[in-house]
Amino acid sequence: MGMLEAILLTIATAATPLLIAAMGELVVERSGVLNLGVEGMMVMGAVTGFVVAYSTGSPWLGMIAAVLMGAAFSLLFGFLTLTLVTNQVATGLALTLLGLGLSGMMGRSFVGLPGVKMSAIYIPGLSDLPLVGKLVFGQDPIFYISIALVIGVSYFLFRTRAGLTLRSVGDSHKSAHALGIKVIAIRYAAVTFGGACAGLAGAYLSLVYVPQWVENMTAGRGWIALALVVFASWRPWRVLAGAYLFGAVTIGQLHAQALGLGIPSQLLSALPYLATILVLVLISRNRRLTMMNTPASLGQPFVPDR
User: Fold this and answer.
1) Measuring CA to CA, which residue among 297, 282, 305 is closest to residue 28?
2) What is the mean pLDDT of residues 64-88?
3) From CA 189, how far away is CA 275, in angstroms rounded?
4) Most buried among 49, 170, 259, 269, by the most CB within 10 A?
5) Confidence at 20, pLDDT banded by 50, 70, 90
């Protein structure tokens, strides 16, 4: 029972940053914008959260600073792609490279320093229950924020007028503009939300997952989050399932290494990324399913009539 509880806890820990980043990117892509800079925004959130938490002693201030940094980075992306109408793919890749380089410079003097870990919530009685106690009632606050994000985004997109408006912009920005909808403003809001989520996901890595700063500590999680959105066919609850599936793969390879199965450690470490490629290949074979849920205006620039 104790071993099972430990495995489930580590899976939840591995899945949480993927889930948060993917939920933010899902909203961005639903508005018709493709932001490949998730990795860069995550790593900037990670270094900002660590630096602020270490300097102030408050992980909460670190988390807030990480969210603001992710949002600021996303606004840079929004200015370039929505206002200056640069290529979204190239700009997103440039944003990732900028984030990786800038974060390394910002965190150079903080490498190896002990971080300030965000404490888990403890509810007397409930947190002590076997198996489900720590898993459900004894997690850190960001874990509960990730679950709330899934519920909130799902409700917003499919149960509110504002969500319908955002989806209409992603499906046909020209038609939405003809109806008087402010396409650029809505996309700016979606991009900012996605950046804030990426920053929060990065803060989770440096404040909860491994409470320290290590250069490039996102280790490709931003790319996995991007793949999760496609894997989930742009559906929030499928993103939740996919994040925990990839979290299980990540933790599975760690346990396989600990058991000494004789499989090269390099191959085991590559399993989450191999699984990502495999899933994308399988999804791409079903073109009808992919096209059915893909926002029709995804990645397409929009210049309002003047």
Assistant:
1) 297
2) 96
3) 32
4) 49
5) very high
Q: Give CA angle at 302 (298, 306), nearest 5°.
A: 165
Report the distance separating Cα 28 and Cα 38, nearest Å: 11
Taking alpha carbons only, the member of 284, 303, 299, 305 closest to residue 31 is 299
Determine contact, residues 225/38, Cβ cutoff 8 Å.
yes
**Cα distance between residue 140 and residue 119, in whole Å:** 6
Domain 2-293 has CATH 1.10.3470: yes
Whole-prediction pTM:
0.92
Ranking 97-111, 234-248, 264-278 by mean pLDDT, the lowest is: 264-278
> The tokens of 149 are what?
């994000």
What percent of the chain is modeled with pLDDT above 70? 91
The span from the CA of 77 to the CA of 91, in Å, is 7
Please tell me the predicted confidence (pLDDT) of residue 259: 64
Quick one: which of 120, 135, 134, 110 has its CA closest to 50?
A: 110
Each residue's pLDDT tens digit, 218-259: 988 999 999 899 888 899 999 999 899 888 887 777 666 666
